[in-house]
């Protein structure tokens, strides 16, 4: 068995060992295990059954990891992306008042398109169409949006009639749970402790249990919750996608997931030293693994699946082969029995995770060319529009509408691709539909 592993995953050629790969897989899992509890919390706000989402999250993550490890042979793990799940719940379902069943169908359609794009190798065309600066702005804007959600859910920011928003009440005991979790997680992150976000959630939960701000769970382990409330719902509601508004939602699912995945894959490949002549070997297989997991996830009942930046934790301890991702996938399956812990993962426990991941996503903003106003203005509108409109899609729309205008004003209209001009009209129509 060991020889087969060594041969298939090219362990010796990559200068690693089976033991190191297993350790790297475990490290990656600990670093991203928080999604098992955060994703049900976020999608639960949209009215979805938290137990079913927990199971769907674990299974979709496991499938993506196994495919990435076995097919693409990369030490890169996958799971429902934090940020786009917030778009799903807060922008589409709550903001646009679209039933979660229809939104899930939108994910299903977007994943089919994603697969077609991969098969016909249209990736370069689409990536080149949208300027890199706007891609960075989208990533950073989503970071600000989910950090805002974390601050709000944790009680650190509340509604204020005079100033729209304001500092939450520090006399509320649960708010101090959020503060404790944020401080502890920040310290662990700065010290580069593997699994810092997960450990921070655990310590916050322990404090909540000790102070009785969180009730003890009825059990530690139990059979995985049923998928019945969400399984197959996406397919059954595909027919509901029959308006321009929903078409734009599908397009947004596709774009955000596609570029987030592409950027993460390239970044992780660079970290691991896989890039050759500025190209990522087997990128088609990596994207096929991602898109297949996204399709399966939509059928199971979760938001889009994508490559996880926390994979860098496993790569940092020496993970270089697909065995790392396979190990992470197996651990996600093992994690299915810990669903009772959902009861202790309150908003105050997940809020610090959302805030810290927001910080990580905002790091992309340094890549934007702020010195050129024709680039800076649409990028800034995307960035600030997402949290202030409480909608990822509205933020993208503001930036994509402004971009051709500022580029034409700067006499750089020829640099704008036909696809971006097309998206200008799509998003103008989108904004008109939403606000008329």
From TrEMBL:
The chain crosses the membrane at residues 21-39, 51-72, 79-98, 104-122, 134-152, 164-190, 197-224, 244-266, 321-342, 349-368, 380-404, 416-434. Pfam families: Xan_ur_permease (PF00860). The keyword Cell membrane applies. Keywords: Cell membrane, Membrane, Transmembrane, Transmembrane helix, Transport. InterPro entries: Azg-like, Azg-like_bact_archaea, NCS2. It is found in: Cell membrane. It is a multi-pass membrane protein. The keyword Transmembrane applies. Belongs to the nucleobase:cation symporter-2 (NCS2) (TC 2.A.40) family. Azg-like subfamily. PANTHER family: GUANINE_HYPOXANTHINE PERMEASE PBUG, XANTHINE/URACIL PERMEASE C887.17-RELATED. This is NCS2 family permease. It comes from Lacticaseibacillus suilingensis. The lineage of its organism: Bacteria, Bacillati, Bacillota, Bacilli, Lactobacillales.
């Amino acid at each position: 068995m060991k020889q087969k592993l060594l041969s298939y995953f090219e362990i010796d050629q990559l200068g690693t060992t089976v033991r190191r790969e297993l350790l790297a897989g475990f490290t990656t899992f600990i670093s991203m295990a928080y999604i098992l509890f955060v994703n049900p919390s976020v999608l639960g706000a949209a009215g979805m059954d938290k137990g079913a989402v927990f199971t769907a999250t674990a299974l979709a993550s496991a499938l993506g990891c196994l495919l990435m490890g076995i097919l693409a042979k990369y030490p890169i793990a996958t799971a429902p992306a934090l940020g786009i799940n917030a778009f799903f719940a807060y922008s589409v379902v709550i903001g646009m008042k679209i039933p979660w069943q229809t939104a899930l169908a939108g994910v299903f359609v977007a994943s089919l398109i994603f697969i077609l794009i991969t098969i016909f190798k249209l990736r370069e065309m689409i990536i080149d169409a949208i300027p890199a600066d706007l891609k960075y702005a989208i990533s950073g804007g989503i970071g600000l949006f989910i950090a805002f959600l974390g601050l709000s859910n944790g009680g650190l920011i509340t509604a204020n009639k005079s100033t729209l928003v304001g500092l939450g009440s520090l006399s509320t005991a649960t708010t101090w749970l959020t503060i404790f979790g944020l401080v502890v997680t920040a310290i662990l992150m700065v010290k580069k402790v593997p699994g810092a976000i997960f450990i921070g959630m655990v310590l916050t939960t322990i404090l909540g249990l000790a102070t009785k701000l969180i009730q003890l769970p009825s059990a530690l382990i139990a059979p995985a919750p049923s998928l019945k409330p969400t399984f197959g719902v996406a397919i059954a509601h595909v027919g509901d996608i029959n308006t321009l508004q929903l078409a734009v939602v599908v397009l947004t699912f596709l774009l955000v997931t596609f570029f987030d995945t592409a950027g993460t894959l390239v970044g992780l490949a660079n970290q691991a030293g896989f890039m050759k002549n500025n190209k990522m070997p087997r990128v088609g297989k990596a994207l096929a693994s991602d898109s297949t997991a996204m399709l399966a996830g939509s059928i199971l009942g979760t938001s889009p699946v994508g490559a996880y930046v926390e994979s860098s934790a496993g790569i940092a301890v020496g993970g270089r082969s697909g065995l790392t991702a396979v190990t992470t996938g197996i651990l996600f399956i093992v994690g299915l029995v810990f669903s009772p812990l959902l009861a202790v993962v309150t908003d105050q426990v997940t809020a610090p995770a959302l805030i810290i991941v927001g910080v990580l996503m905002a790091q992309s903003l340094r890549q934007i060319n702020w010195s050129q106003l024709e680039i800076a203005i649409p990028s800034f509108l995307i960035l600030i529009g997402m949290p202030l409109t409480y909608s990822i899609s509205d933020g993208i729309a503001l930036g994509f509408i402004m971009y051709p205008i500022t580029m034409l004003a700067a006499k750089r209209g020829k640099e704008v691709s036909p696809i971006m001009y097309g998206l200008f009209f799509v998003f103008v129509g989108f904004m008109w539909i939403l606000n008329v």
